[in-house]
Input
Amino acid sequence: MIRLRKPKPIVLIAGGGTAGHLIPGLAVAQALVKAGWPREDIRFMGSDRGVEKLMVPEAGFLLTTFPGRGYNRRQVSFQNLKNLLKLILGILKGVWSVYRINPAAVLCLGGYAALPASVGAAIKSTPLIISEQNAAASATNRLLARFAKVSAVPIVGTGLVREVATGNPVRELVHEAKQNRNKTRVKRGWPESTQVVVIFGGSLGAASLNRAVWEATDQIAARSSVLFYHVVGERDWEQRPKVLAENYVAVQYDHDLPNSLGAADFAICRAGGSTVAELQILQVPCLLIPLPFAPNNHQQRNAEMLEKIGLGKILKDAALDSIALITEIDLALAAYPQRKKQLIDEKVPPNAAKAVSELIVRHALEIPADLDRKAFGSD
Output
């Protein structure tokens, strides 16, 4: 348990934009609170366009946002120049905010939304901790790692300096979902005797995956003993077929996806860092279709982590069609009984959120010279 006396140190968590970047930060924040760090002294800084605008306040944390969005470094256009100028403005405001707040530590989650506060930490020499979600580090984290005290990574070999393999932080509800399989099945009306395939592609969806699923409508209907649960995403929701098989359920978004995955027998999805971490903890066999143009090919590297331990199989996006999809589903479900026996004995990954929070505490309590070191203590 952390023991703090006034003045209370503030921890800034920098990043967002997408759920893949933000969710690990929320998991670490909750781990800090659980360890005794005051909730009001954990603050987020992110983008005024990202998912953090809703998700951070809902989680009960303070949020400061800045203008800016990502830009394509290989493309010259007026919009790109506009995005770059907004990003620079956001960084300037972020640096000013870091000096004003004077945090004890800054956790960088990667992505453009992490730049303002993280650059401020580097300039001010505030302890900076990198949290990398992917097996291949993002450009932002590669840039900032040289100024960081430590880089918390899912596995060693991401390309960052001062790596510590903590795993990828996930929300507490993911750990809970593994124990909720039977409860979730009863709640959803999914009989235990029915094999369930969960298909998803992120909040916006994955167009190639959605197209392959819908082209396989007849094959899905023919597998009446299998339930197909498809999280379509916002982008393609209106494009879904009007006539659907009885054993196929489509939803635009699933706010309780960890429990859905925890109750599944097989999953089909992209290979984002948070997705891969959650599948490993939930021990759900999966077919991974890496985003072909992901920066630094990080989704391919993420997928290879699960393939190496026998939990996932990789299918290239270019090879994805209805025939390949149904073939892989049939093979996976036929092998599931034996795979389920193997999973019982497999070691669950460590609590990465706790591990990263401990790194933050360790460096945050290296109190700056202008503060009274005796004001802090830890148990």
